[in-house]
Amino acid sequence: MASFAPAKDAARPLHLVFAEDLSVFAGSLPPAAAGWLRACGFRAAPGEVLLLPEDGGVGGAVLGLGPLAQKARQRFAVAQAVGRLPAGSWRIATPMTPEEAEEAALAWLLAGYSHTLKSGVSPSEPPALAAPEGVDEARILAIARGECLTRQLINTPANLMGPDELQAAAEDLARDHGAAVEVIEGTALLDANFPMIHAVGRASDRAPRLIDLRWGGSGPLLTLVGKGIVFDTGGLDLKPASAMGLMKKDMGGAAAVLGLAHMIMATAMPLRLRVLLPVAENAVSGPAFRPGDVLTSRAGLTVEVNNTDAEGRLVLADALAYGGEENPDLMVSMATLTGAARVAVGPDLAPFYTGSDTLAAALSAAGQQVRDPVWRMPFHDPYEALIEPAIADLDNAPKGGFAGSITAALFLRRFAGGAAEYTHFDIYGWQPAAAPARPAGGAGQGARALFAALPRILGLDGSDAV
Fold first, then answer.
1. Mean pLDDT confidence for 215-244
2. Would you say 173 and 263 are in contact if contact means Cβ atoms under 8 Å apart?
3. How far apart are CA 234 and CA 281, in angstroms?
4. How far apart are CA 110 and CA 130, in angstroms?
5. Which pLDDT belongs to residue 73?
6. Domain Cytosol aminopeptidase spans what residues (predicted)?
């Protein structure tokens, strides 16, 4: 991932121009550069880049942003220039608001991320950006590195990112920030009363586990719970090949909370942080849990398994119950949980659930500010009946196909009662097609919005907690 350039003095200017402002911009250039702009037919189309000559070399560049009316469609537009500029230091020469400057700086850094496992191929060094005036470089670097950590964990193939490797990633993160990690693994999960995490992972030869990371000695307690299904075959309710192809990303919730944890710890946010990762591989073998099984959870609630492909809520339930026993001020779960969420809002929006209107407002405002779009979904109480089967307390996969994301969230809420506030993110964790600063592949969702909202939600900004 890229870093900021050390100084602005030798940095070449990058101009950002909307189509409506092109003639004014051309008039501000020296005659030779303005003539070059016209001769090249530059129209300031979205993502159009033109290098500006100076003394036989490159003196600067201009990036087109398209029509001003389409500004709301664009996110991280500055990133479009990164791969088309020559190496060296650059600075953004166009005046920006503080929010625009932060977005541009983050976009540049995120555009430097790449992932390849091709032999003999090393990523090229991207051009460096001099941090725009007023931007907190350390904070933006922490956000970018947290997001890149999430991407890298998701993008790593499942044979290289199993429970052992995900545990190692959590331990590396803890070591970097002086945090502590405890792990409960294999049959020890039964002794420690995590029966559903064990049931989901017992068919794999890669042992399931619960990873418990702690950091910070004072302040409100924030507990993050991330779904860590390192690969999901669907279990005995086997997925078709078309649905199994992306299941290396089913640990995207764990990847997202680890990325968020990095942001929090790297910026020394004044809180106590706990990260719980229930990790398992939903495999098929003789010991696999079965459709029709009734499992008893850590919370004592019984769960009828009507689909082994709805395993994520099972492992999360045990972790949420455990986290709730400590009565955190805020508990957040993040999971690539349902296809219903993707159908409802597409791959770009991160739907979230909360019972607090003020918390929802803080999250929505933060998501808009930092260009990490989130969308509130309802804990619709009348749907509670859908998750109550005839022979157990709860059903992990209600029949009928309606409101799949909502019923999953309601299921999880049954286990999160110990927290003062509970919020659930049902993320996709994947960028289907490349976009500015977002290559196709693993993607963080909701973490930057939550990071920006936490000071308001927890009262860290001096206001009353929501």
1. 97
2. no
3. 10
4. 15
5. 86
6. 307-314
Residue 46 structural domain:
4-135
In one letter, which amino acid is 427?
I
Question: Do 323 and 390 sit in the same domain of this protein?
Answer: yes
The tens digit of pLDDT for each residue in 3-53 reads 788 766 679 999 999 999 999 999 999 998 999 999 999 999 999 999 999
The answer to whether residues 358 and 364 touch, using CB atoms and an 8 Å cutoff, is no
- The CA distance from 74 to 317, in Å, is 38
75/152 same-domain check: no
- d(C-alpha 330, C-alpha 335), whole Å: 17
Chosen domain end from 74, 107, 135: 135
70 vs 20, 27, 45, 77, CA distance in Å? 12, 24, 11, 12
Q: What is the CA radius of gyration of the chain?
A: 24
Tell me: pLDDT of 57 over 90. Answer: no
DSSP 407-449: HHHHHHHTT-TTSSSEEEEE---EESS-BTTB-SEE---SHHH
CB atoms within 10 A of CB 165: 16
Residue 238 to residue 234: CA distance in whole angstroms: 5
**Whole-number percent of the chain with pLDDT over 90:** 89
Task: Give residue-wise pLDDT tens across range 70-107.
Answer: 988 889 999 999 999 998 999 999 999 999 999 999 99
Quote the pTM value.
0.96
Please give the angle made by the CA atoms of 306, 310 and 311, to the nearest 5 degrees: 110
Cα 143 → chain centroid: 11
What's the pLDDT score for residue 462?
Answer: 87
The helix (run of H) or strand (run of E) holding residue 141 is helix 137-155
Strands 209-215 and 180-185 come out as antiparallel
116 lies in a domain?
yes
Catalytic residues: 239, 313
In this structure, the answer to whether residues 242 and 101 fall within a common structural domain is no
Are 256 and 206 a contacting pair, CB within 8 Å?
Answer: no
